[in-house]
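Query form — protein 3-oxoacid CoA-transferase subunit A

QUESTION: What is the three-dimensional structure of this chain?
INPUT:
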Amino acid sequence: MINKTVSGPQAALEGLTDGMTLMLGGFGLCGIPENSIQEILRRGAKNLTCISNNAGVDDFGIGLLLQTRQVRKMIASYVGENAEFERQLLAGELEVELIPQGTLAERCRAGGAGIPAFYTPAGYGTEVGEGKESREFNGKMYLLEHALHADFAFVKAWRGDTAGNLIFKGTARNFNPMMATAGKITVAEVEELVPAGELDPNHIHTPGIFVQRIFEGKNYEKRIEQRTVRS
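ANSWER: The structure tokens for 3-oxoacid CoA-transferase subunit A are given below.
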């Protein structure tokens, strides 16, 4: 059986260069590929287009890449937790494409499924629809949205095997399975890496055919954006 294991994030990101388009799984700080983001930061690749649900926070996640001005464009659905993102956007230093959250998920999924474009009612009649083709179906207007692809897709899973099969845990699944299918090179970092054949096939969320490189991550912080507790 093919073994897709690499030694760590340095080997996993081999070939990453300036100007590439990256998908990064996660929702807020939940399920983000922490080790891969740190390696992107260390490599210093510039002029990146990052496709992610959001831009993290100022001092963690994709927010770290914004601080070092490595990101040229963000394609996201929510950006409200990052003050540096707001500053760069208002100053005209960062290109931003805001997409309805469901549309973003489907554009990633379509990219992995080989579907070039699809129609959705989300955003019709708003700024989201400006300049986009529209069409009426059964008396309702829809926008044409194009699939998203990436040079690298970085995802984070709970468990994985050496063949690249992945299992996500709870809400940390979020955008990870869709993005895993849409990268030319998909890098999976996992909390626990086991030999091929040890995962129950019925529990696998992402088949290994979509994953090119996998490694066991270390030192996960798993920060919480907003902690709400009873007084």
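ADDITIONAL NOTE: The longest helix spans residues 101-113.
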